Amino acid sequence: MVNLAEMFARAMQRNQTVPLLPSVSEIDLRKRDIDDEAAEALAERIICDEDGVFVALVLSDNRIGPVGAEALAGAVANSNKIISLDLGGNDVGDEGAKSFAEAIPTSSTIDRLVLCNNGITDRGVMALAESLCSNETVTQLDLSWNDVSVEGSKALADSLCCNKKLTNLCLTHNNIDDEGAEALANAIGENSVVHLDLSGNSIGQDGFKSFANALESNPHRIQLCFRDIRLAIKATGHSRCDTDVGLISRLAGVFFNPLGEQCRRNLL
Fold first, then answer.
1. How many CB atoms lie within 10 A of CB 206?
2. How far apart (Å, rounded) are the C-alpha atoms in residues 231 and 178?
C-alpha cells in the first residue's frame, strides 16, 4: 500500500492543480506508517518546491530510519521551508542524529527539532552538541526518551557554553546521573536556556546539590523540571534526612527558579 507522504509527493509532481506546499502552515503525517522511501519522496518535494514556507512538519510515530532521516535533514539544510520538524517515535538512531547535526549549522529556518524516542545514544548526541556551537536558528531541542548518559550530557553542557540561541532543552527519561547533572548545572548562566527538563532521570542528592549551588551563585532566569525523580532515603530507613529537605528548599527558594509545590511533592 502506498503511504500518504508518497501519494502526496507524486500527486504534486503530476498535477499542477493540487494545492502547493507553500499554502500549508502545518503538514501532520503522524502515525501514517511512513517509511524511509516515503520520507525521501517528501524531502525531495520540499527541496524542489520554490515558493512558500512550512510552519511545521509532523512525522512522529512512523517507521523512519537513518536513510529517511538523512533525506529530511537534507531538506532542512537545503530549503528555507522547515521551521519545525517533529520526528518523535521513529528509529533514526545515531546516524540520523548525525545527519541533523550536519544540517543544523547550514539551515536558516529550523527553529524546533524533536528527536525524542529515536534510539539515540551518546554518539548521536555528541554530534548534535557539536553542531549547536554553530547553531543560529534552533531554539527548541527535544531529546527525551533516548539513551543519553554521562558523555552526552557533558557534550551538551560544553556546547551550551558557546550557544546563545537554544532556549528549551528537553532531556527527560534518559540515563543522566549525578555526573551528567553536574556538567549541565555548571553550564547554567553561560547560555540562553530558560527551560531545562530533566524529569525521569537518575539524578540523586549530589546532582541536585550541583543545581542548587549553580543557581545560588548565578541566579540565571531558568525553569528547571524534575518530575519522576526521587532523592535517596537514608540507609537507616528513616523518612527523609534533613539534608534532602534542606536541599529541596534551597532549589525552591533560589531567585527566579519557579519550583512550586507540585515539584516539591515530586521530589519528596
1. 14
2. 11
| Cα separation, 145 vs 88, whole angstroms | 9
- Smallest Cα–Cα separation from 90: which of 70, 129, 64, 58? 64
For the chain, strand residue ranges (E) read 26-28, 56-58, 84-86, 112-114, 140-142, 168-170, 195-197, 223-225
Q: What is the rounded distance in angstroms from the CA atom of residue 163 to the CA atom of residue 160?
A: 5
Q: How far apart are the two ends of the chain, measured CA to CA in Å?
A: 51
In terms of pTM, does the model score above 0.90?
no
The Cα–Cα gap between 218 and 255 comes to: 10
3-class secondary-structure state, position 194: coil
> How far apart, in whole angstroms, are the C-alpha atoms of residue 258 and residue 96?
35
- Please give the Cα distance from 200 to 220 (Å, whole number): 23
Query: What is the dihedral angle through the alpha carbons of 37, 41, 47, 49, rounded to the nearest 10 degrees?
Result: -170
The CATH class that applies to domain 4-267 reads: alpha beta
How would you write the pLDDT of the chain (268 residues) with one tens digit per residue? 445 555 555 544 544 434 445 555 788 899 999 999 999 999 998 888 776 667 689 999 999 999 999 999 999 999 888 999 999 999 999 999 999 999 999 998 999 999 999 999 999 999 999 999 988 899 999 999 999 999 999 999 999 988 889 999 999 999 999 999 999 999 987 788 989 999 999 998 899 889 888 887 776 678 888 887 755 433 323 333 444 445 554 555 443 444 444 454 544 4
67, 95 Cβ separation under 8 angstroms: no
Show me where the domains of the chain are located. Answer: 4-267
Half-sphere exposure of 78 (CA within 13 A, CB side): 14
